[in-house]
Amino acid sequence: MAELVGGAILQSVFGVLLERLTPDAEFLKSIRGSKLDKNLFHRLKPTLNAARAVLNDAELKQFKDAAVKEWLYDLKDAVYQVQDLMDDISTQNQVCHFSSASLKVHDRDMGIKLEAITDRLELIVKHKDILGLKTNYFFFRLEKGGEGNKISSRARHLSYTNLSFLTFDDVESFKRAKALRTILGLDSHWIPSSIGNTIMLLDLKYLRVLSFKDFSALKAIPDSIGEFIHLHFLDLSETSIIRLPDSLCKLYNLQTLKLHHCYNLEMLPNDMHDLVNLRYLGFFGTRVKEMPRGMSKLKNLQILSKFILGKEPEAANIEELGEMQNLMNEIEISQLENIKNGNKACKARMMEKKHIRRLTLSWSSGDDCINDSHSEKDIVDNLQPHWGLEGLTILGYRGTIFPNWLGSRSYNSMTSLCLQDCKNCWMLPPLGQLPALKELCISKFDMVVAIGVEFLKGDDCASVIPFSSLEVLEIKNMSAWEEWHSIEIEAFPRLLRLCMYDCPKLTASLPIQLVSLESLTVTRCPLLCGFIPRCPKIQDIHISGSQNVVLQEHMLPHSLRNLTISGNGMLEAMAHSEIVDMKELGLSDCSNAVSFPVVRMPQSVTRLSIRNCKQLEFLKQQCDMPPKELSVTSSCDTLASLPIEISPILNYLCISTCENLIYVLVSDTPLQNLRSIDIYSCKNLKWLCNDSEYLLPNLLVLSIHECPEVEPFSNGFLPSCLRELRIDSCKKLLAHHREWHLPSITSLTISDDQDIVKSFPEGCSLPATLTTLKLEELTSLETLNCKGFHRLISLQELRITECPKLEKMEGEKLPTSLRKLIIVRCDLLEERCRNKDEEIWPRISHIPAIRLSDEWISFHTTTHSHRYYVVTDKYIKVFPSEVVLYCSSYELMILSLKEDFRLG
């Protein structure tokens, strides 16, 4: 485990403190009217500088010199006291500003503390020369350590991860860590809500950073959150909270508030405007429909994910957005239908917001019929952004045409543009004259019938090459579009990817020549006819549901790497083409009789997909196909089995809806490389193969779904090498589960929606090697027979999902090896477990971790499961992270947490 010595964070603490002590800093300005001795701050600054200069050398020497180590402890403790004291002074000034309270007593107390800590810090710094500490070092030191199960009272930074299990078995030690500044919950998805409640009820008045990201069990934030008055960073993203308490608005030092993907959150507190130091407010993926008034008072706000215009008088209006002049990066302005007068939109002052890089303008879905299209156009006209904008998205615009600024060459930094769901627009703006545009998406223009020269450029740009920088063009869901004409031969000189989806009336041809095109996708454009354009560099072609699109000269380009085609015409082209380096091939919707190897297949193909080719055949003994992965769906109706010779190097096979298939494979030759097989909806399938032990010597994973005639697993049906088995809705197989003969599998998943299994395992001999058992959607399951589990000495996880009739457990208790029991959407059983029913609880109470739907009800400590991390001043854990901007406090350097944290 990598650990970063605490100097990195302490360096940042020094930086923040010294910045506060600069003459123009807000901190010194805020105390000008106080009785505090300003000379103490003049003494403090050089002392901090002197200590900071030798900090890195001390961090290195502490591992070999006990005296330096002790000196470093004293220094860190003193510096943190300085930070706490300055925070107290700043906070009290703000509180008294709001309450008009006297600062006299407070100033006297703070002055005494400040003098004492300054004297102590000066004494500590004097010892640096005795210890031989040198300046001008800058490095990191990686070290092991920092893991434990008791939290030191000197701990400053704490992180924890469930790694499937989490527990605080020593709550008292957690309560003693009152000096904590950082609490990070990593990989917190299944942590019980009690952990969050414990943390938020603690006396952590110095806490700066609190992250509960992905803490799905967290449903409520207590009012006590308002007591964390020094909190700078709060991340509640991906929790289940419904509301935020009003007390949160007392966190006057809060700089970052993240609420992304809190799907149950419907509103923000009314007093959000009191968070005067807030710099980052993000709440994408919530149900918030309006913002409270007064948001314009947040003068320091730089990142605002969304500004929602409300209907009600107490909701935020467009004028408030105009007063927020420090906004930067990306913002969405939503519910623009609530602007009734187009002239009011100019009050947003979007042209003045020079630091916004990406802008989204959106209208809520609903009635697209409007009485005044000119007013709709005026709204967008008056929301015109500054010329330096890099990305623009317009969603649900209700006007009939766009204002003139959209498409103007003056937007010479705009690289991406998306116009979607503009159902009343009957023509596209001249987007081809945007000089830097690289990505363009156009979708759901229900009134557009034709696209022509107006799309390429305006009348005043005759010499401009249309779409000179465009690399990606997507046009989709254009229900009325019929014609695409007047495409100049020099247009799209750099286009790399062209995608067209769901244009049912489009009949015109594609652009004639796209010299740079590398990828072409045409899907569900049934009337589109003509040739695929000449593209010397093309590598990917995907044509489906568009059978009138054909290749020029019926030849595939030699540069092709991935090909997905449908229809007889495209398939015939393969017989006339030689391609030496194709990697992926997909064939679909071919009604003619066709055979491999009559259809040529490059030896380089590694993935082959065949769909809806009913008369396709594999010519046995003549076919040596190269793919490592093969998928066959609704095809090969003439075959009762697949010849195993189709690919000797095959490692994955998927078969779906092949109605006449009886055996998956029949052969005399083993398939040494095959590791995984998935089978879906083959109604006549009975057997895997004629000799699985011989033919499938290395098969590890087998899934069988909705195959009602598959025979019970008698001896030899499954190869002994199999490790993972999934069975779903196989009527005959499940009806005879008592007769199964399973090999040494480690994972078994069983699903049944056909009312067959009522008791499990009920006589079924499960292998002792099983470590994971999942029972899913067993709609008739009523009883779990624990006696049938007694041989499962290796079982560690039992997961039961959506078994609505399951209510009983019979026999002895579940195996002692079980580490985790998860029961989801089994209402009858869950209720009995929550109530610790005397017939249920004795059979499961020994299991360390028990989860019912989204809540853990039991979390025991075991020697193997206990994993949480305590980081004192000695060690600061290194996390994968990205720097959080717009926040001045030191902790925020490590706190924009990615989803893929892995500790250990």
From TrEMBL:
The protein's GO terms of the molecular function aspect are:
nucleotide binding
Domain Disease resistance N-terminal: from-to ranges: 10-99
UniProt KW Oxidoreductase keyword: no
Q: Start and end of every R13L1/DRL21-like LRR repeat region domain?
A: 318-444
Tell me one Pfam family matched here. Answer: Rx_N
Q: What biological-process GO terms show up in the record?
A: defense response
Keywords carried by this UniProt record: Nucleotide-binding, Plant defense, Repeat
| Gene3D superfamilies with a match to the protein in the record | 1.20.5.4130, Ribonuclease Inhibitor
Official protein name in the record:
Putative disease resistance RPP13-like protein 1
Give the organism the record lists.
Senna tora
